[in-house]
Amino acid sequence: MVAPVVVIGGGLAGAAAATRLARTGQAVTVIEREGGPHEKVCGEFLSVEACQDLTDLGLPPEHLGAVAIDRLRVLHGRHSVEAPLPFVARGLSRAILDEALLEAASQAGAEVLRGVRVTGLDGTRVLTSAGEHRAAHVMLATGKHDLRAMPRGAPATREGYVGFKMHWRLSPAALTALGSAIELVLFGQGYAGLQRVGAAEANLCLVVRRSHFADLGGTWEALLAHLLLEPGLASRLADAQPLLAKPLAIANLPYGHLYQPRSDNDAVWRLGDQAAMTASLSGDGMAVALRSATLAADLFARGASAAQFHRQLAAQVGPQVRRAMALQRMSERPLALRLGLRAARFWPALLTHGAQATRLPAYQTTKV
């Protein structure tokens, strides 16, 4: 089979790029390994930038059932600090959002192949469980997963990160207490975020150092028991019901990753987490993924190369990634964490300023 553009991965970045390309008349094939709706390890926090990108695509998050989030509450031990966000964000399940994006791509004219697994990539030859695709251009949007033929980062270490996600049905009292806030629970070796993603559903997504996870026993049950020592989180989950059969998990999270092209002849366009992975603490991970899709479609339409795209994307999102990583590192240093929370208790607006400082800049039309 021959296709001008093959997009590997039908998640946030892949489906958004395919939609934009197909709307310009470009022939696009999207290969998605999952056969139907599915959840992913994700904080499911749609920042103002992400909401605007989705609205531009004709998918306002509120029309998909997204819940408004307008406050930030930081919890550490018995201390709590709260401040308004400098924007209205949204919470929405990835199972809903990704399906809406794939449907948009299909309606725009993209060919969407579901339940097809990519087994290898040789230049622009895409090998799959359903046969081979010869493409003029390949866009790699496999999220945090790498193709074996295209290793990305350094090998896993004990000091890397592990991520978990669980949806919960909260009690009426817990829903009222949570309100329209996202709650960040900082526990020194990682952090957890709790926010609503539906009328009575909340997403608990957390990141923990591999070493700390191993020291706790290396099980979800042990990690959750440790988290519930945090009074604020314990009160939210006291009468909650887990909505997933088991937590979703992913290891070896390469936070701070910014892909640098090996040469001007790079043939593969890397989107989403394959191109840049910001610290989830900033809440702009999905915005970065959508920005990569917007920029890729824009530059592709103007004849740019994959290397030009990667350099321009790094220039646009690099400052946000570096600031977010600095914030994440500070949250894991006991002294810095104590001093930061003490300052925020006296000046809650510090949280608002911090949220504003880790935003992506406005999208700018770029030159090729």
Structure, described:
The structure is a single chain. By secondary structure, the protein is α/β, with parallel strands linked by helices. It has a single domain (2-155, 254-357), classed as FAD/NAD(P)-binding domain (3-Layer(bba) Sandwich). The protein is 35% helix and 27% strand. It contains 11 helices and 16 strands. Strand 12 (190-196) and strand 13 form a beta hairpin. Helix 1 packs parallel to helix 3 (94-108), helix 1 runs parallel beside helix 8 (285-301) and helix 2 runs parallel beside helix 8 (285-301). It starts with a strand and ends in an 11-residue tail after the last helix. Mean pLDDT is 91; it is low at 148-158.
CATH superfamily: FAD/NAD(P)-binding domain
Number of strands: 16
How many strands, what sense, and barrel or not for the largest sheet? 9 strands, mixed
Low-pLDDT stretches are: 148-158
Structural class by sheet pairing and helices: alpha/beta
Mean pLDDT: 91
In a few lines, what is going on in this structure?
This protein has 368 residues and is α/β, with parallel strands linked by helices. It has one domain: FAD/NAD(P)-binding domain (3-Layer(bba) Sandwich), CATH 3.50.50.60.
Task: Outline the secondary-structure elements.
Blueprint: E1 2-8, H1 12-23, E2 28-32, E3 45-46, H2 48-56, E4 67-76, E5 79-91, H3 94-108, E6 111-114, E7 118-122, E8 125-128, E9 131-140, E10 161-169, H4 172-178, E11 181-186, E12 190-196, E13 201-209, H5 210-215, H6 220-227, H7 231-237, E14 241-242, E15 248-251, E16 268-270, H8 285-301, H9 306-331, H10 334-346, H11 349-357
